[in-house]
Amino acid sequence: MSLGFSRYAVQGGDVGSLIASTLATAYDSVAAIHLNLLPSLDRVTSDDPSLSFSEKAAIERAEQRFLTPTTGAALLQSTRPATIGAMVSSSPLALLAWIGEKFLEWPDDPISLDELLTNVSLYWFTETMPRCIYTYRGTFINGHQYSFRPFKQPFGFSWFMRELAPGPKNIVEKKGDLVFYRQHEQGGHFAALERPTEFLQDVEYFLAVAWPRDG
């Protein structure tokens, strides 16, 4: 608001989906919201008969991923964020190892070495990784689950189907006034980095529908 805009749209994935959802449910100044990851941990199972073949395959793939070291990293960040923060901020090599494994396992398309080192450098030179990890505190334990009221603003969702968390339409449409929904066979957790053209096209198309220029 300090920039002089009375209304604005929000977009988010991963922790950004939580931030965007919080803004949308708390402030009337948010005109529209687009996500590429659900902010709640709704249980999505592959035995739902309404799922398409590709949706079923994507959900089964996600279920298997959460049986891998992905779960271990999530639990550590959830239960020991200060410890992990101190460890990864102790040396650039430690930070590279912690972030690098995610860039190896989570994307659908390979991430270049330059992109990886640029990402790690942003955290290292700004000394922000310990604080970033703390946003995961308490997640994934004791049945904790983020829950938001349905969005009253126009809502859009892009499911890049190699994402860790599935986003089938029958779940997403319960979250609010869904005016845009698109699935992508390629692209994973780092969708904006992996598939920048498709990602931007989705956001632009959503805004054209949800918040036209004369709106």
UniProtKB/TrEMBL annotation:
One of its GO terms (molecular function) is epoxide hydrolase activity. Belongs to the peptidase S33 family. The keyword Hydrolase applies. GO terms for biological process: epoxide metabolic process. This is Epoxide hydrolase. InterPro entries: AB_hydrolase_fold. Keywords: Hydrolase. It comes from the Eukaryota. It comes from Fusarium oxysporum (Fusarium vascular wilt). Transmembrane segments: none annotated. Gene3D superfamilies: alpha/beta hydrolase.
